[in-house]
Each structure stands twice: as structure tokens, then as C-alpha cells.
């Protein structure tokens, strides 16, 4: 019969060593020893995050990607573009992006991709944003090239649409 012993640890390795030492000696810690060791470990051990933060870890409304959570993406975009919108925090930046996508200014131009993403450009304020099908922002900034950037985006999307049309008619 195999016995299994558990010990509290501070960095990972000590638990395995403690269990091995007890097994070699043919004894295991008493309930009292285990309770004291566990209590002491709780005073010194930091919590360990086993997975990447998820969108649920934050109230920031931002689209996630294959590489990062929504909160991580919002933080990265805020660091790059937040000052352009006088946003003091990632939350404030995200709120401005969501508001822009939810109700674009009069005269703003919009393109919808086949995957449901929506590109919005307002020439008057020179603001460009992309939101996913749920309305969560993917990006939000002032293009350096202004209207030329939007013209380029329209050309890319027209080419993508034409390519998709050709592919579907070939099958």
C-alpha cells in the first residue's frame, strides 16, 4: 500500500523533500504538525496565478485576442494611444472607444468585415476604431496620415472582399 503525505511549501521543492523524508523515516506528520505548517505557509506564501488573466478579471470592455485578454489589450492600446484622448486610465480610454463605436459621430464612415468587425473613421475628428461583432474595441486612435489612412483601409477591405467573392465563386 502506498502512503501519500502532504506538506506545506514555500517555493515548491520543499514539499516534495518533506514528503520524501517522512516516507524514508516511515512516519508522516501528525495532524497538529500539518496544521501548524500549513498556517505558517499561509503567512509567507504569495498566491500563484496559474493562467493568463482573463477578461473577467477586469471591468474593462475590450476585445480579447489569441495572444492576450481584453484587459491586456486595453492596457497596451492605452499605453500607446491613451494620451491622444486625454484618458487618465485604461478604463477611461476603453469607455471612450466603446462610446465612439456604439454611437459614431454624424458623418463617420463605416465598413463591416465578413467576420463581424466594424471599422469606423470620423474625418472631422480624425478618429479611427475597430470593434468586434459584440461592439468591443480592438483599436482606437488618431491616424497619423488622417484620411489617407482611411482610404488605405477601404482599399484593403475592398481587396479582401473581392478575393473572398472570387474564392466562393470558384467552388
What does the model show?
This protein is of the alpha+beta class. It has two domains: 13-44, no CATH class; 63-170, Nuclear Transport Factor 2, Chain: A. It has helices at residues 13-25, 31-44, 70-81, 90-102, 147-170, and strands at residues 109-112, 118-122, 127-131, 137-141. The chain has a four-stranded antiparallel sheet with strand order 1-2-3-4, with helices on both faces. Helix 3 (70-81) packs across helix 4 (90-102). The radius of gyration is 27 Å and the shape is globular.
Radius of gyration, CA atoms, in whole angstroms: 27 Å
Number of helical stretches of at least 4 residues: 5
CATH topology-level name of the largest domain? Nuclear Transport Factor 2, Chain: A
Helix-strand pattern: HHHHEEEEH
Number of domains: 2
The biggest beta sheet, please? Answer: 4 strands, antiparallel
Overall number of strands: 4
Side by side, the strands of the main sheet go 1-2-3-4
Mean of residue pLDDT values: 78
SSE-based structural type: alpha+beta
Give the overall shape: globular
The CATH architecture of the largest domain can be given as Roll
Beta-strand percent range: 5-15%
Map the helices and strands.
Layout (H helix, E strand, L loop, with lengths): L12 H13 L5 H14 L25 H12 L8 H13 L6 E4 L5 E5 L4 E5 L5 E5 L5 H24 L1
Antiparallel strand pairs: 1-2, 2-3, 3-4
